[in-house]
């Protein structure tokens, strides 16, 4: 399968990210970073965004050991896996998932606005690329599914008639008379080598 051939590439690394347990979302309004205990992050570490095929992965890792703390697969952006908060450009809510399919929403934040910008742009660029790849493969599939031009007998009827002249081309069918069939002349027997005279 193609997934075995896909390799993981790194889109973005940010050495300093804070993680917050967040309260459940209140009704339909968006998440607000001001509802979190911003001065008391639950975890701090390094953030790495990688991609494998069309999916991006936000990985939260220990700064020293590189051990994975949590990971959030992102299949579309913007989407449910990554949301911006309503009151700051430096904080996001991501949906982390473990290998068993369980998921949880956590808050992440960057001290530097530039890091938040890079995080955002890395995801946008990845999904812009995914969209282009999808369109290109869709176009090539459509090309494969188009009827092939028959350039054999009767194929000339695809050409428009020359300007000014009336050309009648018989419709291609199996009942065309073989009046224009030319039989090759018989090959004369050669006198070389074959006869004992």
From TrEMBL:
Residues 159-173 have a biased composition (Pro residues). Residues 7-150 form the NECAP PHear domain. Residues 135-149 have a biased composition (Basic and acidic residues). SUPFAM superfamilies: PH domain-like. Keywords: Cell membrane, Cytoplasmic vesicle, Endocytosis, Membrane, Phosphoprotein, Protein transport, Repeat, Transport. InterPro entries: NECAP_PHear, PH-like_dom_sf. One of its GO terms (biological process) is endocytosis. The keyword Ubl conjugation does not apply. Residues 135-197 are annotated as: Disordered. It is found in: Cell membrane; Cytoplasmic vesicle, Clathrin-coated vesicle membrane. The keyword Glycoprotein does not apply. It holds the Pfam family DUF1681. One of its GO terms (cellular component) is plasma membrane. Involved in endocytosis. Belongs to the NECAP family. This is Adaptin ear-binding coat-associated protein 1.
